[in-house]
Task: structure prediction
Amino acid sequence: MKRLGTTLSLLTVLINPIFAQSEAGAIFLLIAPGARAGGMGEAHVAVANDAYASYWNPAGLGFLDGQELAMMHVNWLPGLADDLYYEFFAFRKKYPTLGTIGGHLIFLNLGEQIRTSETGDELGTFTSYMSAFALSYSALISPTQSFGLNAKVSYQHLVEIGAGSEKGKGTSTDFGFDVGYMHKEWLLPNLTLGLNLSNLGPKVSFIDPDQADPQPTNLTLGLNYALVNSEFNKLNIVYDVDKLLVASYPDMDWDNDGYIGGYDDDGNLSPGNDYNVDGQIEVAHSDPIYKAIFTSWVDDWIIGGDIDKGSNGSGDGDKIIGGYEWEDLDGDGKIDLDDNEIVRTDGTPGDENWGKYNEYGVKEVGNSKDRSLSNELDKLVHNIGMEYWYGEYFAIRSGFYYDKTGKISNPTFGIGLRFAGYGFDFGYTYGETGHPLTNTMRFSLNMEF
Result:
């Protein structure tokens, strides 16, 4: 058993660590299904040629004939707990005059949790789980191009009721949709391009509706190159890059007056309120989806104000920007708090004499000017893989999952077997000892008929 807060925090970081301030909800929708994709570094958007295409890129369904069922089981985050598991079920069927209909069902069990009060007293146990259902449609728009759509409903059950003053129930029912595109023979005869924009929809709220988070809207671009494509030997090199279209901000001093908030949304003086004199919100928040599709590309680069970072730079500060200056008394080029090298300066917030540092020696003034394009590029997640088929019966796979921001760099391996319309796939994620993703094993079954 584990405490709910700890479990969800780790789940947020490990499912998709590219969240700038972990401000996305329903992050379980980003867990990659399919042992085949799992063995290829989770690069699959430009492959998507089985029932799992319903998740990876619904446009891939348009190229498939017949019908298929698929399912996967995985003990999720085995290095963290032994009672987290993830189940996935998918189907597809081709209708000659209509297109392909498909869909998938996801179930994530978070195990048994300890319920605590606001003061930390244990109040018993409860179980948490998350689920989602998606219905897919895909059709060809040319012999080499297809599009696809998903409509989905997700349900998240964290706890029956909130704790203390929290409002609402710890459950959430939400809807969203995905849009996919696939282009075979793109630029080169053996090159396939895939695009998938997933999890478009309204914000998700847990416990307190006032603390709603955006859905994990994600854009993936994939390439699939058939390096070898003969009768008995096939070797494909695949690459995906992910960009989370969520723009979120910590407490920021947008108007450079040295304070976070202090006004109401009409610009009237209101100590303790969340807005500045221009009516702009300065406390931690995220942009709505229609805006985040654009601002998420520059929110950690061009857009931004001075950040109230607190003692460790996390953004949990005192609502005052700066106020202290650094004086390097011993000339070692480092801030030494024990030597009193952080000193209060004269002046008031916004004045030229106002210090750039907080009392912990963390720089808070000038953050928006210090950013560069690399801050945005660091948030991209890269997936690369390869798949070799001998005939149509046996496959071996390997890949690599790299996320700089989340400090994840995991090699992956896998095998696949096909016979008489049945398929079995196994995927294994390797990593450093003690990492929760290390030794993750995925098992998948397919049946075409």
